[in-house]
Records
---
Amino acid sequence: MMKQYLFIIAGMIFATSLWTQEICNNALDDDGNGLIDLHDPACYCAGITISEDVSSLIPNNGIETFGCCPSSFSELDCATGWENGSKTTPDYLNTCGFVLPGIMDAGLIPFPEGNGILGAVYGDTWKEYVGTCLTSPLEEGGDYALSFFVAALPIEVNGTLCNDGNHTFEPVAITLYGNKSCQFQVQTTGCPSWAETEWVALGEIVYLPDTKWDTVTISFTAPFEVNGIMLGPPCHLPPGYAGIPCYAYMAYDHLRLYQHMHLTELSSEPVNLPCDEDYGLKATVIPDGGEWQWYFNGIAIQDENGPEFILHENNSQEGIYQVVYSLADACISDSILVELPSDVTVSQEVYLCPNSSVSCAGQWFDSAGIYQVIIPLPTGCDSLVECVVIPHELSDVTFLKVDTCGPIEILICDQVFSTSGMYEITCVDEWGCDSLVMLDLHVVAPEATVAKPSFLGDGPHARVLLDGTGSTPGPFEGGMTHYQWLGPPDGLDGPANAAIAFAVREGEYCLVVQQEHNNMICTDTLCVTVRKKQIQEEPPVKTGDGKGHLSDTSYLQEIVAPYQNGYQPGVFIPNSFSPNGDGINDVFRLYGNKGMKKVLRLTIFDRHGNMVFQQAQNALRDTSPGWDGTLDGKPVDVGIYFFMAEIEMMDGIIRFHHGEINLVK
């Protein structure tokens, strides 16, 4: 059987010493809290250390020197060198005077050292802290430890035991705080770091309250130079520390703060190849002489008490393996995550293009079939891949015939085509195979061209040549080109459906060029102005100033003429309208001021040159029906339409205007 093994080495240093209540290497829940072995905080390791200097940096660390013998609660100032950390009132207890009744009833006398101890309440809204100035500052980045005796008991407000002396308090983090200065009496009854950010939590120890003296150690690295410390509850207490009627009370004795360093770090690594029978894990540490224990997912593996461990002895299970090395009363730990992938054969399908080859699992195949590929791994194991090579049959050549009006861009297989022609296009399909597309593209793009007309002479027989012979003719065999001239009434002399026409009146003349091809009609229009003599051109259309704004879909173009009688005649033409029945901009109309007389003709064409609307003899300032966006009573499609307007002005001059209309819904 082939197997693959993946190892992730993750060093884990644990914090605290082994608890006596929980035996940490028997795979049993000895203290009944539902947590077994390394899952129990009691089995958390702090690492193996040696002390550089075990002398305490705390003055009066045994709490035996005092200026007065306490006679009641809240007399911490009697103990030499000790201060109230905040506005709360921790206690100095000494057998020379006052000791809580609960202390005596719980059997905590004699004290671990001498006759004096410190006491503090742990409550949600009343947190008591004992503080002191150090004999010399802690160096920034230095490793230190605070060791002390601690005992806990439930008391009433008068200091007697409550709840028959039985603990209901959950494990709590006894916390050490530090400050660069040595200023106490933080103005709070809660957490000191909430009131003054200069007080920083340096470290903590998770303690299971018990009515007996025990030794605990808080190990930490100084984040800055520390001159003052205070000890007490964490900022957030577990449930059950409300206080009334039963308070959690902690007693401290023999507090020693000293510098230390780690003796060594434990390392573990795999041994041999994963597919070998003797594959296992090995741990090393200096110095030796301690005791070993291996764990699987935090639970002790019985009889695995050496530096090496063979994996098949745990049925080759994947998961997290830990090793704990204990020396004296300290321990250090490391862990390895072992992942064992499934030994099921992996199947991979690939498609083979005609006259080609395809890659699968690092090998190339040029014919269809099912192939077994064995891949050697650096671990010494083999991986099996089943390659299923499927022939991919390409379809015949795809022929595309496209007839369209231009200008246009057509995208086929990431290539752009805009001019007529026959194209051979190679496309890559979703299987990576080449296929062929033949494109027969006909782009019909007529272009109306009109030579600049000369000026219209005087006299009844004067006329001007309108030359549209430069317009683009129909380029395709069988196609047809049509010409249509539009202009003022009776302004054309002779046929209006040829490339050449003659104008006999002033005004605007437009040439509409249509090309037919395969039942498709494409149109282009160009307009010129015929005048008797050269006059000043009309000013450009005004846009963008918001004048005459109709709706969100339309603005009015203002067409102005030279001043007459002190005012400037003008006509206003919308550039879009929306015939959707909402009562706003539903009809396309022309608007004018008193300088305009009447609309002689308004004609509208679609993009193919077909006339869709025409009206005549409607005064500008009267209500005119305009175009409601229908043809023969039916709504037309949205899009661009073209208008031509013939307007008579009050001075008798006839003006012609043309442009685009955007019909939207």
---
Amino acid sequence: MDFRQRRYRIVPAGLVIAVFCLFPVTGQTAADQSSAPLPLVISVTPEAVGAGDQVLVSFEVPHQLTDSAYITERPPQKLPGLYLVKGPYRNYLYDRGEDGTYTVRTKVRYYYASRSTGVKEIPTYRVAVPDGPVYESAAALVKVGEYSRRVLTFPLEVAWDLPKDTVYVGETLPLVLKVQNQDEISLIEGVSVTAPRGVFFEKAEGLEDISRVTVAGVRLYHIPAAVYMFIAPSPGRYFVPNAGVKAGGRDGESRTVAIDVLPLPDRVRTTGAVGTFTRHERFLDPQLYAGSEAVVEITVKGNGNLPFLAMPSPEGQDLVFSQAKEELSIQADSRGYHGERTFRYAFTPGKEGSVRVQIPEFPYFSDKTQKVVVLEGRTLTARVLPAPSFVRGTEADLLETLVPLPAEKVRSVQALGLAGIPSTYLAFLPLPLGFAVLLILRIRKALPGVFLLVLMVSAGDGFSPVLEQAYDLWDAGSFAQSGHAFAQAADAFPRNGALFYNMALCKVRTGNFSDALYLSRKALHLRPRDPDLQRLPGLIEQRMELVHQVEIPGYINPDYAFLGLIIGVNALAVIGILLLFRKNIVLTISAVLFSAFIIIAGVIEYQGVTAASRDLGTVNRAVHLKRIPKESAGDWLEVPEGTGVRILEDADGFLLIENGIGTRGWVPAETVFSHNDLTSWKTDGFWQDP
């Protein structure tokens, strides 16, 4: 058999195999095509209408649809707002072919309208032809505006975004006023909102991010305009009035929304807390003394109605509590209120021994689980020590018993600011320069003397006569003159925290607590870890009944870290020189350890210098904050005299300050004493008797 004969036999066999192989695939593909919906093109006429006008939505199906045809209308999922006016209507269209036969098409029409303006989504359709294919349409949009002087305009689409429309008494509900479905991002130019009656309604500072959605191939933006906190004090139905927004030269107004408020469970009514919370409690001072004031501190953290919850007072046998101070660190944004709130309760142990303070349970209603959660009570126990000899009466009375730090304390090693003295950097040079090996021992022996000389710069007799005069004037009861003498000593040694502590006590004795608070904070700013300086600012704040204070940052004296750098660099240089002549594992390990020591000292030095350079201050008289640094700007919040603040900026004779809870505003520069100021405490007028 030649090749030609074999070819004719192979071809039919190959065709048969191909048919059998392709048949199931072809059958499966047809089945897939019959089950997959075919595109259905819809027509929207017109594409922009006025509110109440009708819009025609039509489509054609290349089949004669009888009553057995199945047409489904699926409502829009993202942009509701259209309602069906009439339809469907069916018209049959006949098309004659070249062979004289006719085919039938069905045209289906619907008429919709909208009672409100905005961007609306046309419903999608699904048509199932009996014994035929399935057709499905894509989404489409229509813009609904309003007529103004016969001109069709499109106002902003404004709406209240409610996380839910049913809440409980006391629950914080953040309401976000949004400009919705905009085809471009516009700057919010103004918001007009009327507070609902009978509820707490406060504007929050934070806003949500701009969100976007894609509908019918068009990208639309949702722009938050404002956030308000809604809290209802009693059950019932409340209404949030319509609100107006102006953006991009256009106006818009929202609809009124209703919010149903349910009563809280009885167990939560003692606290009224709704949200998610944690609680921590402790004795503020672990050392309790008989006859002196002690403080129990309770901190509540979480997300919920933090500004409005009530904290049950602690209890103790034969103890009387008073709420001494309350501090808040709370933010309000689209998530609601979140942060922490600290309650401090003062009591006086009457005798030595143990004292037990019972912290009551703290029930709250979880807005997530819709259940009552109870933070169980706790008992704090402490031992009351005998009263020190200087303790007499209450904390307020302690101010009158405090005496200046002794001269030995003033002459001790002080904060010198070594990093800011150029000559101190010479201490880094000797050993790193690579002196001869024979001179290394001499240099190492001389270094302690160099360090001691640097440390004791402030311990000379330069201010001894002035100090003696200051103490003599204190003993004589001339407190203003004594403070002036301490100030003269501080003029020569402006980083001596003990001198400022003594100056503060002189101000206390003359009754000028505002200046005393400034000086005591300045002393603590210079020496934040000195226990002798830590108590005085709190006593004065209690006397002045001040809250929302900026705390003095704690840090290690950068002078110690600077000396550590000097020692570490020189010691590492010694080890390096020795390693040049003799390889030793001990020297290698020592080099690694000293390198790590230098890095740690450098970090501590940087942190200390940064903390010490923070510009803090004390308000020297009651003043109102202004939103802009202009004398003509209106007053909006009063800052009491003696308030500790952060100084953030200065402009045109004004300072931008921030209090302990983050409230910012501008005040005249002369109303704030800066802790870094080197002039306010030098003037004679600063030390005149009141």
---
Amino acid sequence: MTTYQRRLWLLSDDEPWCLQQAARLSSCCKTTVKQLVLGGSDDPPLLQLLGREYGLLIFNAHQGFDPDYFAAATGTIIAGGMVLLLTPPLAEWGEKNDAMQQRISVAGYPDKGVTSRYLLRLATELADRCQPFHFNAQQPPPPLSLHLRTTQPGSEQQRQLLPELLAHLNNPKARWQPLVLIADRGRGKSALLGMVAAAYLQQDSVNIILTAPTLAATTEIFNHALRCKAERLNARQLRWQHATLSYLPPDQLLAQKPGADLLLIDEAAAIPPQLLIPLLSHYPYQLLTTTVHGYEGSGRGFIHRFKDALDKETPGWRQFSLTTPIRWLADDPLESLVNHLLLLNATAVATEQLLGFTKDSWQITEINRDLLWQQPAKLHAIFGLLLEAHYRTTALDLRQLLDGPNVRIIVICWQERVVGVALLADEGALVANASDPLAAAIIAGKRRPRGHLLPQIIASQRGVAAALTLPMRRIIRIAIHPQLQRQGLGSSLLKSIIDQAARDGCAAIGTTFGVSLPLLNFWQQSGFTPIHLGERARSASGSYALTLLHPLTASGEAVLQQAVEVHQHQLPEQLGDLFAHESTLDPAIAIALLRLAATYCRSELTTIETLEINAFANGERSYNSVIATLRDTAMQLFCLPDNAQNPLLMLVLLKVLARKPWHECCQRLAISGQRQGLAQLRQIYRSVIH
């Protein structure tokens, strides 16, 4: 009887034998089964696998095992399909050169600095879970015969959910109440999105816009939308009578913001939130989908990060989920195996296990990574916290956690349960002195030794060569259990990390993260000072990277003072340029950064500056006649205590620093016109004098 279960066959021996056997097995079903072969130099980009379907996957891990790629590829296999995983002999796998080691290697560490803990765990789990489908030269695999389920019946969940979604999207009272659909891979999110599009198109003259990380990822959506007998105009658009469905990449959608009756967003966790958030206030009807566990990030973490924006911008938003598989059957062996191998289903400690938690009974300790890979409960809890806290956490991060040569893991435990975790990296001490040729090459942008982000940012972006001579420690991530946040655990963990870094002889400790106001406030209140803002938004998160430093020695303090001086000098011009070109940076963050930087600026005005600002404030000089002076003294507006919450600082940012035309400033700040705007500008500059 055909079960349509998906399976993994493990072929572990030398590479020529594995490839020969894979070719033999492939030939058994070459004419009838769509196949995907990965592990070579011509592999397609990972995101191109979104929405694709295959019956057979051959994954050659002899040259390197990329867990993100493996997760993506196995998610394309339909019911009844097969994965052939080719590996070295499991007992020898950890001793082989692995190309993936280069991605986590660190300059200054021995060639063997990257350990094989990750591969040892993987080999152990595969040996335990792949019987009786583990083959080698002594026990070759039998002929392969696949029975694929080529049609995918919709689930009862889809049938029940479809009318509810459509009723919401057609309800005038549901405007500005987005729908968020969360599901694991293979549950039919994209198919349901296509069904919604097909039904919505049959209304008169509607316009639907679809966005997703790539056009290739929308194939299934378009295929389902076409079932309403729509006409395919091109790869990005279809039409049914006077209604249209059009695809736009996320960045183009934000830049153009064309009109639409409905916005569909697929795989939202793979799209930077800085691109998504502005859309919330532009399109009254939206349906977003995202994956719970996956190579593109965690849907759980996405909701945690995106929830505040949804609550603020669209408080009536609703969340739905799909749990029944469509692409494969329930209780699928392959899905269970992949989730276990890559910890895609790792979760933080259950809330009910935290009953009775008290703040005086936790312990902060450093994890021995040589033991961690053999402690599944602790490893699951640590990685689960990271998945919950950071929506861009992927399967590859597990390998960094276990094998990164300069990585440290610090945890907060309560009754042997992990309730907080911090990942740290030891960096710096790259050169003996600042005159070393390597230091000059790093500052000039000609060299980027791997794995030393913090000192290289200080040297290359702030010109402080001494940073390369000092030992530093970088905080990669901090995650606290969602049920225990805002109870002081994060601050206590950070204090412990700082104290230990000082005892270990680090000159400074720092961090780099995608800046947000809550994070900026947390780090600033913990004694960390901003020293560099990234020039462009990160492609992964859409946020701007902010680097902060906390000195621990006199030499660290000297580096901080030099870096801050450059940062304070450059920040007004940098932010002015960013906002002159439609930056996605939150203006409130820009003002907060300017206020922090302004504490280091000069406090006295020159005689000429005093005369010119006084004349401008009293209406005796025009804006254009004193513009240079206004720009030179703008930072002093941000350091005045009375201006801490002054909304007119936004006008200074947009008009004086970003040089926006008056009509744009007035429109953005709800000012009636240039006359009122000029009066407000004169008012705030009066505070510099008085």
---
Amino acid sequence: MSTPGSTRHLVRDLGIIVIFVLATMMPFINMPVHMDDPTHLEFARVQVEHPFQQDIPGYIYFGQYFESFRDTHPRGHSLLLSLILRADPSEDEAPMHATFLVFPLIAGISMYFLARRFDAPPLLSALLLMAAPVVLVTFHSLMTDPPGMSMWLASVTAYIYGSDRRSMLLLAAATIFLLIGTFISYQVLSVIPLLMAYMLLKRRRSLAEIVPLAVPAAAFVLSALATRWQYGEWPMFSYRTGLRVMPSDMLRKGRGILVILGGVIVVPWVAWFAFIRKKPDLFMAMAATAVATAIALPFYLSDDLTPNQLILTILFAPVSALIFWRLCWGTMAPRMKSDDVFLALWSGGVLSYCLVILPYASPRYLLPLAPPVVLLAARGLKQLSRSNGTAFGIIGAIAVLATLALSVPVAIADYDRAESYRTIARDMGERYSAPGRTIWFDGDLGFRYYMEKAGFRILGPDDDSPKPGDIIIWANLAHAWDLSPQLMERSIVADTIQIYGRLPLVTLNYKDESGIYGHRNVMVPFAFTRDFSELFFVLEVVRPEQPASGPAGQIALP
């Protein structure tokens, strides 16, 4: 039974979480459409008129034409976006992001109650989670990751409380959250076996606890059968590249995860205090640092690693090792607790499907791993205070501010890269529009979204139709295919435009193999460099369709 004092304490904490979320999200409310956002918006446009349609007719995706395009996401997310488009067809960025603020609020509040249940400081846990670089950056997008993680957290929290308290209302809420999450992101399906494990660990097998897991599973199967009946094919459960389970692929993904994990959830300068509690922890940290240095340094000396890759590997990989160590320690301790086993299963499940099923290492794929890791970190930081409330408050505030010291610059750098596409679309129209001239572009994602919105035409990989006087905009990072060799021979480089962010930090860079959203060869989540956020080549077509003989007109683009 709650007392007036405990109620006031709860209201205060939840108010702090709401203020913190709004303070970290509102400055990015005008975030440009970015990464996978345009594809979700394309489906949303279709679903405004046809809510249950699961394909886009006649769609070009990364240079490939599809008569009927379907992707690997359930249609619940784009259905939500279609409701926003019904209210505001202009696709103005601010209203869409304002609507999506509900998801970080759900995630932060769910984390608060989850931490209370798992003996971690609840307010610190919620703030550390929402301040983590991977959360702060990805929650500014319109992709499936923010709502998917929010529903994951909400369903786990509601189910655990409902199971522990025998509350039918909370178990019904867990069913709803899990249903919504399942139709937003297939990753949320992982919650079903995870909660089955919780039920078995607690030796509970009542019908009331089985139904919240059975209903979403049955709904998923029925929806898959409906898709099979409608399209003659099963839903797109995996990327078109197929499963990457060859040893070289697994090694590449494992290498990326090992470095990424230690830098995007609990930042290193907080992790050292949070995870090093006893001499074995210190020994593990020192050994991991020595091993990471011994492996990375020879590669750097032979020019196989860049300075960014060397420094971030030595900085982040030991933190990942510490995280694995702390997760395993709870399951190996003499008095093993079922709660610690549950957190280890949660983490191990996410890591397993990231390593086996998903196509490459990506910080956003590790989002569901953030809650259990943050819980362990918050527990460790609490132990530093030795039950001194004032000391704990200071330690917690320093930890959150230290995390924001990395997260906010990364979020700014990601905003600047997204803004480069909105800027180039506006500037190219002002600079190159002319009667009888067509402006073409080669690229996808946010770049494609703004170029199409400006009225420019997408140029396919084999399209040689541009005429003399036409302009082609080619994006270095966002380009999705190579231009036709014949077209290249008929064109000259009229201009190159480098757009730099406000900070010496980038969230995508092929030289350093960095990517906060991931790509095939990602090794580090971001890179500290004064390199451009994006580079654009402006090509002008100068000769008609019959190319000149010889290679003299051939353009070489990076």
